[in-house]
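To: structure subgroup
Subject: Chain for Friday's discussion

All,

I'm putting the inputs and outputs inline so they're searchable in the archive.
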Amino acid sequence: MTSSTLSWQELIPDAQYLAPLFSQGLSSSASGVESLQPRLLNAIDQLDLNPVQPLLLIKLEEHPTNVKALAQIVEQRLPVKTVDQWAYHSPATNQFQLEKLASQETRSAVYYADWIESDQLFGYLTEQQGSWTPELGLLHKANGGTLILSVHCLLSQPLMWLRLKNFISEQRIAWSSPDPRRPISIHIPDYPLSVKLVLVGSRESLAEFSENEPVLHANAIYTEIEDTAEITTDQQVIDWASWVASQAQALALPPPDVGFMLRLAREASRYTNEQQRFPINPTWLHKQLGAAYAAGQTLTESSLSEALAQQEWRESYLPDTLQRDLAAPHSLLETDGERIGQINGLSVLDLPGHPRPWGEPARISCLVHYGDGEINDVERKAELSGNIHAKGMMIIEAWLMAELELEQQLPFTASMVFEQSYAEVDGDSASLAELAVLISALSLKPLQQSFAVTGSVDQFGNVQPVGGLNEKIEGFFSLCSQQGLTGKQGVILPERNCCHLSLSDEVIEAVKHQQFHLWPVSTVDQALELLMSLPWVTANDDESLLGIIQQRIDEAQQPVKAEGGFFSPSRWLNWLKRD
């Protein structure tokens, strides 16, 4: 074997390293946002210090939880300063004077709304028995501070946006009649305005804002809320734990313990598909905190594990149904034995409306016969594959031609297909499996059916990382479990994907007891030797897959001397065979 299997400890984030750092973070009083959102903090500082630019644009998914969390960060970040306060005084009915209250040192107020109407934003006038009363809006309350609004909300109400833009530009709020047909008969002084405006929205909303307001967009301060953070230093681990603890406290939940944090780290790396990258999205975290508390009234490892198990069970009706079909007698998938020109590939299904993707093994087969050297992609010809899959097929063909060093066309034609597949196939993550099954068909050497293979291949024979790795491995493990674990089954995966692993408890236990295995490979040569127990190339060509294929090519290209002269039946049968 050219590659060793992964240990079970490598299938999840390093608990031994994380535990003491999590303990420090949970005991800290910091919010933990300092090293997790550096771009955001810098943008808030710029908004506060810049005297001529009152607008900050932030790319943020417009969810109330995200907007509220942003408001908390802005409020904590802004320094204490002297803020002018104003109030209306009415010495007589329908007579109003604006009075400046005593300035005081206070933390700048931060107000936010994910959706707001015009009256809520600008205030309104009420009339009762001929007496008018001004009711202050959110913009008045945010005066001297910061106002966070939704870009989508403003774009949906263009007149409100025009008024807001005009008020901020003129630094005053003017009152208008609630009925445009009846102007107000009294005078109410304009309200002085000094406010910093933060507009948040999705990339699509910000793109629309850029089209409508190109000058404002070009001159505004811009940043993006990061959904994930690379956790590579001790301080970042501590800050992430502090952030989790602060969010739990804000939700009035019990404090999480270290066990909870370790289980959360596994779910976090699974969410990001990287062991050293965790989500810093409040919406995602609140979902985990709420589910764990509902399961056990505490934030512990057991409560979160139970919550995640319940969630998976609730959402797994469709995946379980399809997995049962794959293991049924009418399915030709095999997890034991040897076959020529047949291999277990891995794919991921992600259906619209379903909350989670899942892995689905697929049988890939290849047949070879004498021909003009074409590698026929049946999926492509049937219009059931995308351009990326076609690209992968062309890459493996180029690699094979370069390795064979042929002076003329390959004398074999190959036909490759995803068996029992009736939906579109795309992506290049099956190119390593497709190359292996092609080599098997050309060399007439069998492939181990106890393996499943995933990985992309480049033109130099390097195995490249792919997406959906956890789901793919768990999908094949489920099939093996239903057909019976033999201790020989496992998945061949790209070595560069090892940092993306965060697998289920069932897979980890099976790996721990050597009932299931994971073999990382970095080159095509390593994968082929694992699958066929023969090296791709050696000094003695007779003992290598490359040598065997070259020998078959030489035999196919040699002219056949048929007995019996020109009219011999064997001579014409050979010609027909070649056609």
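Points worth raising on Friday:
The chain is about 40% helix and 20% strand.
Residues 133 and 452 are 74 Å apart (CA to CA).

D.
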